[in-house]
């Protein structure tokens, strides 16, 4: 069964939709199949994703309102150039956009600011309000309470008459229970009014608008391969990666962070990859295993929090707010390590079976912008996080599998069908990407107008996994603020290729 001509035809039709809508921030799937094509080769492709992710408030949210589609459409290009200067050495440059996010909430829900929002959850704010009132009132001496009561009545305590009234009232306060009770009630009402006015001022610091997030990355992989025999290919190289993004948190779900903005300037860093492949061209057998390292980015994130002064509501909070406002430091963002296993083999004349297995180390991934982290350490004890918390983190590693069958119909046409599964990266999961994995089905077709050129296209339909969404302050626990169920996505891809 000689299937050598299928070695390229079937695999090419399965991409560029390998990742599309994977767990966490995974996007492209980081395939290196272009590098493993025989001879000199070039390709360019584009994938488009149209997700629909909606849900409703739940869990710790005080309301149960609907949440409209919060996942933005996006596209990501890819390109590859592979050269085979000798039979034993090959070189390739691969471009893709491996990780990303595009999120924007809208409507009326806990992720959009409105006039009913409070600086902390209402139950927490009620406790702080009562403690502040009690502390303030109990710390007032008899002289201060009498003075406050007389001042409220319009008595000028700087005059002789005012001082006489003060002494007389103070004596009555200390000797007549009814006078004491009346003055205490009036002063207490004044303290309550002042505290409520202060809280109203603090609540006025909250942000306006909606929660939105955008993260973009780009990869250039420079790969050198050594083929000691026709069957083996050992390869490795450097990966140049850039990252940039922006985050805006709004709505009651984020309480004190309602008004937080962060801008991540574009940063570049270098990682590496290594792997090996084995093939038997006569039966269209090809297997490859590729490891990609973490990539560390150290960036000075521009952060602002309009509610920072509200830390004064907490013990020693005023000093903490001043220190945080003056603080500066780098934020480390480490994109995760991953492993891809790709396999294909001929199963009958003109037909191959293929599979891809991918692992991504999301359980060790987190983002904690510098000032965000300092604020989280200040308020962490309120939410049982004494060491603070992260803006984004995931509890599980991602596993994904795509498998299918491809068939050559004639010298110009080939097609394939595939089924995919993704485990997700934990549940509950971040409000900035509230789905847990997926199932999908895909169809691909490839047209080769000449033996050296092809055009490939594909479409995939995703059933997105139900998930509970939690804020950074809730991560690591079972609390959540919303549920997202019965969601889906549709992906399209187009690729052109040239063998020379």
Automatic annotation (TrEMBL):
Molecular function terms in GO for this entry? long-chain fatty acid transporting porin activity
Q: Which Pfam families match?
A: Toluene_X (PF03349)
Its keywords, alphabetically, are:
Cell outer membrane, Membrane, Signal, Transmembrane, Transmembrane beta strand
The protein's location, in the record's own words, is: Cell outer membrane
Q: Where does the record locate the signal sequence feature?
A: 1-22
Tell me which GO cellular component terms the UniProt record holds. cell outer membrane
Q: Does the keyword Signal apply?
A: yes
UniProt topology in membrane: Multi-pass membrane protein
Q: What is its main location?
A: membrane
Q: Per its UniProt entry, which superkingdom is the organism in?
A: Bacteria
Cited SUPFAM superfamilies: Porins (SSF56935)
UniProt entry tagged with the keyword Membrane: yes
Task: State the family it belongs to.
Answer: Belongs to the OmpP1/FadL family.
| Protein name stated in the entry | Long-chain fatty acid transport protein
Source organism of this protein record: Acinetobacter johnsonii
């Amino acid at each position: 069964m000689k299937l050598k001509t299928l070695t390229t035809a079937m695999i090419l039709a399965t991409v560029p939709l390998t990742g599309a809508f994977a767990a966490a921030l995974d996007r492209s799937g980081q395939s290196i199949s272009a590098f493993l094509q025989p001879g000199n080769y070039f390709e360019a492709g584009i994938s488009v994703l149209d997700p629909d992710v909606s849900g409703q408030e739940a869990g710790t949210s005080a309301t149960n309102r609907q949440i409209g589609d919060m996942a933005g459409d996006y596209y990501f290009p890819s390109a590859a150039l592979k050269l085979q200067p000798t039979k034993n050495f090959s070189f390739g440059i691969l471009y893709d956009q491996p990780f990303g996010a595009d999120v924007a909430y809208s409507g009326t829900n806990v992720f959009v600011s409105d006039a009913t929002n409070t600086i902390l959850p209402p139950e927490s704010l009620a406790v702080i309000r009562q403690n502040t009132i009690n502390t303030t009132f109990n710390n007032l001496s008899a002289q201060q309470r009498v003075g406050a009561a007389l001042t409220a009545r319009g008595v000028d305590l700087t005059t002789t008459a005012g001082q006489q009234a003060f002494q007389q009232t103070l004596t009555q306060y200390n000797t007549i229970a009814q006078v004491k009770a009346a003055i205490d009630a009036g002063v207490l009402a004044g303290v309550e009014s002042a505290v409520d006015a202060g809280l109203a001022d603090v609540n006025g610091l909250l942000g306006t608008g909606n929660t939105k997030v955008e993260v973009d990355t780009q990869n250039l992989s420079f790969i050198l391969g050594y083929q000691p025999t026709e069957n083996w290919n050992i390869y490795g190289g450097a990966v140049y990666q850039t990252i940039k993004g922006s985050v805006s948190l709004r709505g009651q779900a984020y309480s004190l962070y309602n008004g937080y903005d962060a801008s991540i300037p574009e940063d570049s860093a270098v990682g590496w990859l290594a792997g090996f492949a084995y093939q038997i061209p006569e039966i269209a057998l090809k297997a490859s295993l590729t490891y990609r390292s973490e990539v560390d980015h150290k960036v000075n994130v521009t952060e602002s929090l309009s509610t920072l002064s509200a830390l004064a509501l907490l013990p020693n909070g005023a000093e903490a707010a001043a220190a945080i406002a003056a603080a500066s430091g780098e934020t480390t963002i480490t994109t995760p390590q991953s492993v891809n296993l790709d396999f294909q083999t001929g199963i009958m004349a003109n037909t191959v079976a293929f599979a891809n297995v991918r692992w991504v180390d999301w359980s060790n991934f987190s983002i904690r912008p510098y000032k965000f982290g300092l604020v989280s350490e200040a308020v962490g004890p309120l939410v049982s996080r004494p060491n603070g918390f992260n803006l984004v983190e995931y509890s599980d590693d991602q596993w994904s599998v795509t498998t299918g069958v491809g068939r050559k119909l004639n010298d110009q046409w080939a097609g394939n069908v595939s089924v995919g599964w993704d485990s997700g990266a934990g549940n509950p999961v971040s409000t900035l990407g509230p789905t847990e994995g997926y199932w999908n089905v895909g169809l691909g077709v490839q047209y080769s107008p000449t033996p050296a050129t092809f055009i490939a296209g594909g479409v995939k339909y995703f059933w997105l996994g139900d998930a509970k969404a939690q804020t950074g302050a809730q991560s690591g626990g079972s609390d959540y603020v919303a549920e997202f169920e019965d969601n889906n996505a549709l992906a399209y891809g187009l690729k052109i290729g040239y063998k020379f």
